[in-house]
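Schema walk-through. Below, the input block comes first and the output block second. Nothing else is stored per chain. Lengths vary across the set, and this one has 306 residues.
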Amino acid sequence: MIAYIGRRLIQSALILLGVSIITFALLYLLPADPVRQIAGRSATPQTVENIRQQLGLDQPFFVQYWRYLTNLLTGDLGRSYIQRSEVSELIVSRLPASLLLMLGAIFCELAIGLTMGLVAATKRGSATDQTLMLTSFVGVSAPQFVVGLLLLYVFAVRLGWFPIGGYGTWKHLVLPSLTLGVLGAGWYARMMRSSMIDVLRQDYIRTARAKGLRRGTILVRHALPNAILPVVAMIGIDIGIFMGGIVVVESVFGWPGIGQLAWQAIQRVDIPIIMGVTLVSACAIVLGNLLADIVAPFIDPRIKLR
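--- output ---
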């Protein structure tokens, strides 16, 4: 176990290094000039050049990246060009909101998706199965802002059950979590249906039926633990996606998470914040996948880490 985790951590470090190089290169090649955003339209060429030199943006690409990488190894994500604050402080201040939204979204998509997939698998080929799979396809295909605005209109504007936006109480969390849950539930429903159908065909399921076990016992104790393994891997990926922030959903609901911070940085070409959010998202994805791999043997002892 320790050797496996050590190898995975080394691989993760290499992945994060590659992500940092690619992201830094893409931002370096952007036609937008962050110095112009800082100096303003009325700034003189001399002022622009002075700011460029102060930020080190007049240096070649490899010099800029090496300076950023050496600072990164000491835990320094840089300072925001526009807000003049440490990027690490800005990200940490948004983490509680992002973590809360991540937990709410994963709970909603699992509750909806696994239930739909389980019911569809047990009623394979029926009208219920076809209806649920069609619903999951619509959920996967629906744009985020459409689902978010529809939920806002129905439950916030018309019914008044939840606030239109903001952050602070459990009611503020329901609609953005449900929006992400509806969108992600379709993937979980289809994955769960496919996995459950394969498991229900296995010999040990037929043996359990021959012994006279109740259907609910067979599904919960014998089929579900094996069928849920592919879902565990998907959860690891979702952790990274949600930690990176869902820009559209956070913008629609005014949720003060990392996604909203990234969107503001993109509009202002605030490179340190964009780099910081990208690396935090990459770290979350890598750690989420590692966690999913470590948890899998506890769900199914037949799986061995190698």
